[in-house]
Amino acid sequence: MEHRVHWLEGDTTFAVASGETVLDAALRQQVALPHDCRFGGCGTCRVKLVEGRVHYEEQPFALGDEDMARGEAIACQARPCSDLVLSVAPPLRCSPPTRARAVVKDVAALAHDVVHLQLSLPDEPQLVYQAGQYMNVLLGDDRHRSFSMASKPGSGLVDFHVRRIAGGRFTDRALAALRPGDVLDVEVPLGQFRYHREDERPIAMLATGTGLAPLKAMLEALMDDADCPPVSLYWGMRDQGGLYLHDRIPSWAERLYDFRYVPVLSRPGAGWSGRTGYVHQALLEDQPDLSEHAVYLCGSPNMVADARSAAIAHGADPQYVYADAFTFQENTR
């Protein structure tokens, strides 16, 4: 049975065929609902069900029971049980995803398993993207690898933090062979993760692993900004060796208003005197009331899901909780 879906902010209505997901139907009819991974892991296509009901073949990873109780749905997995009215902000304003030839400027180790990759995009001055978005490296056989941009827009050069996966086609084999002057085919910009200046709230940022990259881009965009709000950055790693920018991050406080950096290790060595445990628990120990904050989460899907639920339980308004879960499969990197 066909159902009708009305998207309030987009002021548009589209049909969903029997068995079809809301997102698949929207994209089939050129309706630009925000989305990213398309398998329920990242939460980018989260919508508010103003009216109607949906069901799932399996509950999406990015949707908890509390989310469903609030009337939220994940459009890439949701199948209508009735006509629907949805509420979700339109996709951010930026250039449409564009294919370009990027020139390698630098390849250098940041840690034993993290590489700094710097690219020059020939049309970068005309390319409009937001700090927090990502790009695809195109591999020539309809496959790609996705990496968040780790530097603010506008410089002509774009940085990436690439975690090496043993045996990975790009992150291990191709990356090791790259040299300055080499050319990569890329697609950019992609994704909906970005800094929301309009919130005008103190910011709590939580990252695990290379989830630091898009948060670094946001922080760079806030540097020397008279309207920069107070920012806390909590970065979780297993051990101290993984904190590949640990010595540089404290200097960011010189160019940010009221900046605090808290590294958190889950498996610290004997010489570690800093915070330990889960990164979101460290935040909540320091700031148990998040009702006035905007919260940005980036890293493993488990951290994003746990931290989002915990932040909301400690007062964070769901509309001010933004997340980007890294949902790659290790054997395809």
UniProtKB/TrEMBL annotation:
Q: Which organism is it from?
A: Pseudorhodoferax aquiterrae
Query: Could you tell me the keywords of this UniProt record?
Result: 2Fe-2S, Iron, Iron-sulfur, Metal-binding
Tell me where in this chain the 2Fe-2S ferredoxin-type domain is found: 3-92
Iron-sulfur listed as a keyword = yes
- The answer to whether keyword Cytoplasm applies is no
The uppermost taxa in this organism's lineage are:
Bacteria, Pseudomonadati, Pseudomonadota, Betaproteobacteria, Burkholderiales
Domain of life the protein comes from: Bacteria
Per UniProt, residues of the FAD-binding FR-type domain are: 97-196
Query: What is this protein called in UniProt?
Result: CDP-6-deoxy-delta-3,4-glucoseen reductase
Q: Which cofactor does it need?
A: [2Fe-2S] cluster; FAD
